[in-house]
Amino acid sequence: MPEKLLYSIARPFLFFMDAESAHNLTLPALQRAQAIGITKLLPKPIHDPRTVMGITFPNPVGLAAGLDKDGRYIDGLAALGFGSIEVGTVTPRAQAGNPKPRMFRLPQANAIINRMGFNNGGVDAFVANVQASRFYQDKQGVLGLNIGKNADTPIERAAEDYLHCLEKVYPYASYVTVNISSPNTKNLRQLQGANELDALLSQLKDAQQRLADQHKRYVPITLKIAPDIDSEQIKNIAEALMRHKIDGVIATNTTITRDAVKGLQHGEEAGGLSGEPVFELSNQVVRALKSELGDALPIIGVGGIFSGSDAATKMHAGASLVQVYSGLIYRGPSLVHECAAALRNVK
Which of 71, 160, 61 is nearest to 123 (CA)? Predict the structure, then answer.
C-alpha cells in the first residue's frame, strides 16, 4: 500500500520535530497533495454505509475533532477515506490557546499529551473555511462541527458561548458536537455535573428546535464527554441526554490520569492524555453508556484506536461509529482503511 510506505518514510522526519511543528507541517502538505491530485493514489474509501442520527455515513470510521481546529484542511483530510470529518473545537472569539510547548509525544506508550487550550481563529473564520472547502460545497460527505467556550468566559456564562457557536455553525454542519470535556479549559468539565448539564442541554435543545424551523433542516447535536467519570456520573449524563432528546454522545475525550505513562519522558506534563492508554478507559465508558442508554441514542466511540481490531472492540462495546486521532499520528493514513475494512462485518 503506497500510503503505508510513504508514511514509514516520512514518520522519522516528522517525529524528529516537536509535535506541534510536525502537525503544522503535515496538514498544509496534505492539503496541497489533495489539490494537485496526489491523494488519488490512495486506496478508494471503503463503502459501508451506516445510518446514525438520521445521517448516512459512507463508512463508520470518522476523524475526531482536534486535528483541524479551524476547518482549514477539510479537503485534504477527506481524501484519506474517512466516513466523516469532525473539525474544531471552535470558540466564539479567536484565542491563542495555552503557552508553548503544549503537545508532547510519548512513543513508548503510543500516546500524546496536549494542553492546546482550544487555540483557534474564532467561529466566523471557521465558518468561512468550512464554506470554502470543496467537501462542503459539493456535499461530499458528513461534516461534524465541534463547538466550545472561550477560556476567559466565566463558567456560569458558558452556555452563551455554546449558543453563539451553535447559531453560527448550524447551517453548515451535518451534526454539531458540544465539547464539555476538554481538560485544558479551566473548569470546563464542571459542565458535566448534573445541574450544569441539565441547564446547558435544555438551552441547546431549545436553540436547535428554533434553528431547525429557521433553516428548514434538523441538524443533530452530540455531546462529547470525558473518560474520567464514575458510574454515577455516567448514569446522570445518560439520563440527561435522554431527557433532553440529545441526538448522540461521543465517548470519550482525553484523560487526565497518568498511571499508564508514569516514569516516561513527558509523562507528567499537564494536559489531556490520548492514544493507547485511553483505549480501555474509553471502552469502559462506552459499555456503561450502552447499558444505560440501550438504543435510545447512538454512541460514537473514540479513544486509543490503533488497529482494525481496536475499532471492532469499540463497536462491540456499544458504539455505532468510531473516530480516530492519535492512531492516525502513529500509524498514518493506512489506519483509516484498515479500520473501515475490519468493521465491514460489525454492525
Answer: 71
CB count in 10 Å sphere of residue 14: 17
Q: What is the percent of the chain with per-residue pLDDT over 90, rounded to a whole number? A: 87
pLDDT tier at 28, thresholds 50, 70, 90: very high
pLDDT band at 123 (very low <50, low <70, confident <90, very high): very high
Q: How would DSSP label each residue in 162-175?
A: HHHHHHHHGGG-SE
Lookup result for grid cell 461521543:
250
Element (H, E) at 89: strand 84-90
**Residue closest to 185 by CA, chosen among 226, 145, 220:** 226
Question: Residue-wise over 236-268: b if at least 16 C-beta within 10 A, else e?
Answer: bbbebbeebebbbbbbbbbbbeeebbeebebbe
Predicted TM-score (pTM) above 0.85:
yes
Q: Are 340 and 59 in contact (CB under 8 A)?
A: yes
Catalytic residue among 182, 274, 282, 326: 182
Q: Going along the chain, which residue ranges are E strands?
A: 50-52, 55-57, 61-63, 84-90, 103-106, 111-114, 142-147, 175-179, 221-225, 248-251, 272-275, 299-302, 321-324
CATH topology of domain 2-342: TIM Barrel (3.20.20)
Q: How confident is the model at residue 7 (pLDDT cuts 50, 70, 90)?
A: confident
Say what the pLDDT of residue 195 is: 87
Q: Is 326 a catalytic residue?
A: no
CA distance linking residue 206 with residue 210, whole number of Å: 6
At residue 2 the predicted structure's pLDDT band, cuts being 50, 70 and 90, is low
DSSP per residue, 286-323: HHHHHHHHTTSS-EEEES---SHHHHHHHHHHT-SEEE
| Overall size of the chain counted in residues | 347
Task: Of 25-39, 141-155, 191-205, give the range with the top mean pLDDT.
Answer: 141-155
Measuring CA to CA, which residue among 122, 58, 42 is closest to residue 89? 122
